[in-house]
């Protein structure tokens, strides 16, 4: 049995949905189909999820969804018309959205969650209706009926362990099951979404639950590339990656697959196959526990902006019991999570996502660190990019770090910080945001120029 997930780009128009239909029916093992909300048809287009967020905010401000409501309904109407569906499905979707927008009985957060989730929910209804119209037995399955339970963390839901046993029951249901991605239900019955792009997570949870042979993740590129194709033209495609490599790369900016989506598939040992809806013949990329081919130490280079670093130094820090705990305690009081913690004998840097910080508490927090920890120096650096050079092969190759550092120094990029994870699967370089692109290009040339030549 296969679980197949189609992203927003694969469902953006009737023409795309038709491709999805052909892919699903071409293999009888494709039983569980997870769908996103309609995505962008062209680069300046707006995803239905973003239209829904704007619509909900408009309702809060003015009492009606205005142009955003119309735009959402128009997207579904266009898709249905392209597919030759009658108006019944559009009436179902319109009624559902109007009902959700009128229900202000719960908190603002709950209201936003239910509107956001409706994008996938209504798309799943539409796609099931289309499959039926083509004479194929297909059923829309709501995550509540499937037993997909999640924690009550709006916008950051985590799956609850009992979910997997519930989902196993889906194996015995007849026909193709079309399930909306991106959200689940709390035990109390409230809708809670995963983080953005979280339909990948739903697909992985379902693959684990039904014990699928493979989780196929259909998107709009032929494969995961060794570097973001937006930074390097025609980068090398990756045929096989380990779960650990993909986790590091997606964490650090490979938006093609959500970084939280690997764990459920990994725990059940289910391979993930990233494929192209627009070119299903392409080989795609397989994500597996162990990979055979070891073409050099590095498999991919990812980068992401929007980080800051808090640098703290104190003479004899290494001898002070509890220093790290007290420092992290202060961060916890400001509800900050950190990404990396490179340290030396007398100093430590804390790398955080900048969007959690706030100018009003930033100075206050730095002062507290200085006085409460009696630090010699505390400073913050904003607008950093992290570049992750990833590959299982690094463990058995000498000199990867020096090659990377030399490639950066050759183009005059200053390395603000370096961190090598203990797993030796990745090396992290912190650079100024303004240097990110050229640094990635230089690293790509260093590690891949000979491979692609
Ligand atoms: N290393 C990479 N390899 C392939 N695609 C990448 C990479 N990094 C970023 N991307 C981008 O990810 C996009 C696919 O992800 P996304 O837009 O979330 O797809 P979907 O609509 O299927 O959910 C690609 O179009 C590509 O621009
Ligand atoms: N529609 C949701 C969830 C999702 O997974 O979308 P996509 O497959 O288009 O990345 C979002 O935009 O966040």
UniProtKB/TrEMBL annotation:
Pathway the protein contributes to: Amino-acid biosynthesis; L-lysine biosynthesis via DAP pathway; (S)-tetrahydrodipicolinate from L-aspartate: step 1/4; Amino-acid biosynthesis; L-threonine biosynthesis; L-threonine from L-aspartate: step 1/5; Amino-acid biosynthesis; L-methionine biosynthesis via de novo pathway; L-homoserine from L-aspartate: step 1/3
Keyword presence, GTP-binding: no
Class in the EC hierarchy, top level: transferase
Annotated keywords: Amino-acid biosynthesis, ATP-binding, Diaminopimelate biosynthesis, Kinase, Lysine biosynthesis, Nucleotide-binding, Transferase
Catalyses which reaction(s): L-aspartate + ATP = 4-phospho-L-aspartate + ADP
Pfam families the UniProt entry points to: AA_kinase, ACT_9
The name this protein goes by in its record: Aspartokinase
Species the sequence originates in: Mesobacillus maritimus
């Amino acid at each position: 049995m296969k679980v197949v997930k189609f992203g927003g780009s694969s469902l953006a128009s009737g023409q795309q949905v038709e491709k999805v239909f052909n892919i699903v029916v071409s293999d009888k093992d494709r039983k569980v189909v997870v769908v996103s909300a309609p995505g962008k048809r062209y680069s300046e287009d707006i995803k239905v999820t973003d239209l829904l967020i704007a619509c909900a905010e408009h309702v809060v401000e003015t009492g009606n969804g205005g142009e955003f409501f119309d735009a959402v309904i128009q997207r579904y109407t266009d898709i249905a018309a392209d597919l030759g569906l009658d108006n019944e499905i559009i009436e179902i979707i319109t009624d559902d959205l109007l009902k959700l927008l009128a229900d202000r009985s719960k908190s603002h957060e709950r209201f936003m969650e239910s509107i956001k989730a409706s994008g996938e929910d209504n798309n799943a209804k539409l796609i099931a209706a289309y499959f039926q119209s083509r004479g194929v037995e297909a059923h829309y399955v709501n995550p509540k009926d499937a037993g997909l339970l999640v924690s009550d963390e709006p916008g950051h839901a985590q799956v609850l362990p009992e979910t997997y046993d519930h989902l196993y029951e889906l194996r015995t249901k007849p026909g193709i099951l079309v399930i909306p991605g991106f959200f689940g239900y709390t035990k109390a019955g409230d809708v809670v979404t995963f983080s953005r792009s979280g339909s990948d997570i739903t697909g992985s949870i379902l693959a684990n639950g039904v014990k699928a042979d493979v989780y196929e993740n259909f998107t709009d590129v032929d494969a995961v590339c060794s570097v973001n194709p937006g930074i390097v033209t025609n980068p090398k495609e990756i045929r096989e990656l380990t779960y650990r490599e993909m986790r590091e790369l997606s964490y650090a900016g490979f938006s093609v697959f959500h970084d939280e989506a690997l764990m459920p598939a990994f725990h059940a040992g289910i391979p993930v196959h990233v494929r192209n809806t627009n070119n299903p013949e392409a080989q795609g990329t397989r994500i597996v526990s162990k990979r055979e081919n070891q073409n050099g130490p590095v498999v991919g280079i990812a980068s992401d902006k929007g980080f800051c670093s808090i640098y703290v130094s104190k003479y004899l820090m290494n001898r002070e019991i509890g220093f790290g705990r007290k420092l992290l305690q202060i961060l916890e009081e400001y509800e900050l999570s950190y990404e990396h913690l490179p340290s030396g004998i007398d100093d430590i840097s804390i790398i955080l996502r900048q969007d959690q910080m706030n100018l009003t508490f930033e100075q206050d927090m730095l002062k507290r660190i200085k006085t409460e920890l009696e630090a010699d120096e505390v400073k913050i650096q904003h607008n950093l990019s992290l570049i992750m050079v990833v590959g299982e092969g690094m463990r058995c190759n000498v000199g990867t770090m020096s090659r990377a550092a030399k490639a950066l120094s050759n183009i005059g990029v200053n390395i603000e910080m370096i961190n090598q994870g203990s797993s030796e699967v990745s090396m992290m370089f912190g650079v100024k945001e303004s240097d990110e692109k050229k640094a990635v290009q230089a690293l790509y040339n260093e590690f891949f120029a000979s491979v692609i030549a």
